Amino acid sequence: MSLGTIYTKIAAGEATRTRALLPERLIKYFKINVKVSDPDEVFPAKFPMKLVPAFQFPDGTLLSESLPINLFLLQQVENHGGLLGDNSQKAWAQNLQWMEFINNDFMRPSGQVFGMIVGRKPFNQDVFNFFMNELRNVAVPVIEKHLDESEYLTGSAVSIADLYAATMFLRPLGYFMDEEWRSQLPRTMEWWEKVSKHPVFDNFFADLQMVDKFTPPN
């Protein structure tokens, strides 16, 4: 029996949204019995925020937000290859801690910057500078410092937190984390290169063209 239906796109025909990349990959790699669907005519009524991923259980129960959806999906896998660590409460808490950090402290400013670059959000120089400063001087240095002391986010092996974080670097690396910036992040880039090649992603990142030199909009 199917575990439910997941929506990974806002509109039919568009690319999978960044926060929905990992659940889509987990379902495919682990062959989890979940239907991946384009949004239908009742999607806005069920999920008024119109955000993905969004999940509907067979009994009609709705689940939104990427963190609980990713963790729920991985819990359905008997042999997840250590992606949840040793399944202890400590490992669970460590994974959740880093996923929360990436979702809030890294992805929030990244989304604002990316939105202004591609025109999804109106450009405002002060707002743009504020969020770029959050990334350059707060969020990214935290990641770099941690990875200078630990091979992966939660220890010595790839975890669900690493996979989640790797997907969130997709737009920054392609649009504004240019060569000069990346050169200041040797540990982060070494980590990303390893995690992005995890079999869950099935070479998804192989064609990613990282930006050479970023010129801010004005």
From TrEMBL:
Keywords: Elongation factor, Protein biosynthesis. The keyword Protein biosynthesis applies. Residues 88-217 form the GST C-terminal domain. Pfam families: GST_C (PF00043). InterPro entries: EF-GSTs, Glutathione-S-Trfase_C-like, Glutathione-S-Trfase_C_sf, Glutathione_S-Trfase, GST_C, Thioredoxin-like_sf. It comes from the Eukaryota. One of its GO terms (cellular component) is nucleus. Gene3D superfamilies: 1.20.1050.10, Glutaredoxin (3.40.30.10). Signal peptide: none annotated. One of its GO terms (molecular function) is translation elongation factor activity. This is Elongation factor 1-gamma 1. It comes from Wickerhamiella sorbophila.
